[in-house]
Structure to design on (448 residues):
């Protein structure tokens, strides 16, 4: 590993959140219902039976949270806009009170010297659109472009970084094939259709961004995973490559080359799941040049040949390794592996690590919250980000997931990723030791 010096002065350190996970106020001020409102209110869908109705109550406490971020010293704050808060029916009449909330938030951030990074879609689709087909429908693709245009016009001079979609693989396959996330479908054909429409909607949003001559930069965020074969045997090597095609290349190839990976299309078709290749026109749209690629990284997966349906492969549960409270292996080198692989295979002009974080069972008893394992995780991953930077990777920034503990989707309030502890009874915020560690890293622009 390279000698550890200083990150470049223009390297951005930030934190990230998502609207449904922190905002609460689920039906206030004209907000419409989202698929996550519907899903979390369905008995049996959320591990601990909680919902995002209140979450961290960021909608009412955003000024308090901006003060925390200013104390932390971050350069940039990544947050998402709740689509149904702005467009309760998904399209049509704008809810001005919803738009005003984000206007106030952005003004507060800029007043604190913090750059806004806005994600257009972090999974909370308006339920009204879901009832007309959701992401399987062409209508939702067009509605997303209309929604993007509204935000681009409203905040055209106020936002530094725009992200069209967060983790489209999760939206498509966890939400529509595995059924663990909203809308809770278990239909592989639907998931393939959703993946196609998410890519098309991304291309349309980038086109709108360019038409509107918006200031700032635009990109997309993918959750990327290094898949390692369990053995050097041919079947395990092929299984790992299929998983790579399923999760990584299924989105990387269209975004940078305008085509779905042909090996995966053929594999699916041989098992009765047909999806047509992107046409030349569609490929050109999806692969419109972007200013950066966002990469979310948490862990790697070790894969073997198996009987799991469709992929005929399965990840191993590694028993003898450190794991987060999510059950994910701690594998810091993986962030370096995925960054360098993306550079070598796709050559994006810039990369931001838009999420990286650690879930632990933090407990507050009135004193300091000593989350040393989170500090170690973040330190070791930043060391590998620095190594990638030293080797020529155009990584421009790093966002910790997350600013504060929040609603962890189907796991409810049972997992804590935050630099700030949230007492869900009182909603009191308490910075953890990792908060002050990250504060020093930002101040020094170094891990020394």
């Amino acid at each position: 590993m390279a000698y550890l010096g200083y990150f470049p002065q223009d390297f951005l350190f930030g934190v990230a959140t998502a609207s449904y996970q922190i905002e609460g106020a689920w039906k206030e001020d004209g907000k419409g219902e989202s698929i996550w409102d519907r899903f979390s209110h369905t008995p049996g869908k959320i591990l601990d039976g909680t919902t995002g109705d209140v979450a961290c109550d960021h909608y009412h406490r955003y000024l308090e949270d901006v003060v925390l971020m200013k104390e932390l010293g971050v350069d940039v704050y990544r947050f998402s806009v709740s689509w149904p808060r702005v467009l309760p029916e998904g399209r049509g009449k704008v809810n001005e009170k919803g738009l005003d909330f984000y206007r106030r938030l952005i003004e507060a951030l800029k007043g604190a010297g913090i750059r806004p990074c806005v994600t257009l879609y972090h999974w909370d689709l308006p339920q009204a659109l879901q009832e007309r087909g959701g992401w399987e429908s062409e209508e939702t693709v067009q509605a997303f472009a209309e929604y993007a245009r509204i935000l681009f016009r409203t905040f055209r001079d106020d936002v530094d970084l725009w992200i069209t979609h967060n983790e489209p693989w999760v939206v498509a396959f966890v939400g529509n094939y595995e059924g663990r996330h909203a809308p809770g479908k278990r239909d592989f054909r639907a998931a393939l259709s959703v993946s196609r429409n998410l890519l098309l909607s991304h291309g349309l949003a980038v086109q709108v961004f360019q038409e509107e001559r918006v200031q700032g930069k635009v990109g997309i965020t993918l959750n990327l995973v290094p898949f390692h074969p369990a053995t050097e045997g041919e079947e395990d090597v092929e299984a790992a490559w299929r998983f790579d095609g399923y999760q990584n290349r299924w989105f990387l190839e269209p975004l940078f080359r305008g085509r779905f990976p042909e090996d995966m299309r053929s594999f699916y078709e041989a098992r009765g799941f047909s999806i047509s290749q992107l046409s030349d026109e569609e490929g050109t749209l999806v692969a419109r040049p972007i200013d950066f690629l966002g990469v979310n990284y948490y862990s790697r997966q070790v894969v073997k040949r198996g009987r799991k349906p469709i992929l005929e492969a399965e990840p191993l549960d590694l028993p003898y390794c450190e794991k987060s409270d999510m059950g994910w292996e701690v594998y810091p080198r993986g962030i370096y592996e995925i960054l360098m692989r993306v550079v070598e295979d796709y050559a994006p002009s810039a990369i931001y690590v838009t999420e990286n974080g650690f879930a632990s069972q933090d407990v507050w008893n009135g004193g300091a919250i000593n989350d040393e394992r989170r500090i170690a995780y973040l330190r070791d991953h930043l060391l590998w980000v620095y190594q990638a930077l030293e080797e020529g990777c155009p990584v421009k920034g790093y966002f910790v997931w997350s600013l504060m503990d929040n609603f962890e989707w189907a796991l409810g309030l049972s997992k804590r990723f935050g630099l700030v502890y949230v007492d869900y009874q009182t909603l009191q915020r308490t910075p953890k030791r990792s908060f002050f560690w990250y504060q020093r890293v930002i101040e020094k622009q170094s891990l020394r």
Summary: The chain has a mean pLDDT of 97. Residues 188-211 form the longest helix (24 residues). DSSP finds 15 helices and 13 strands in the chain.
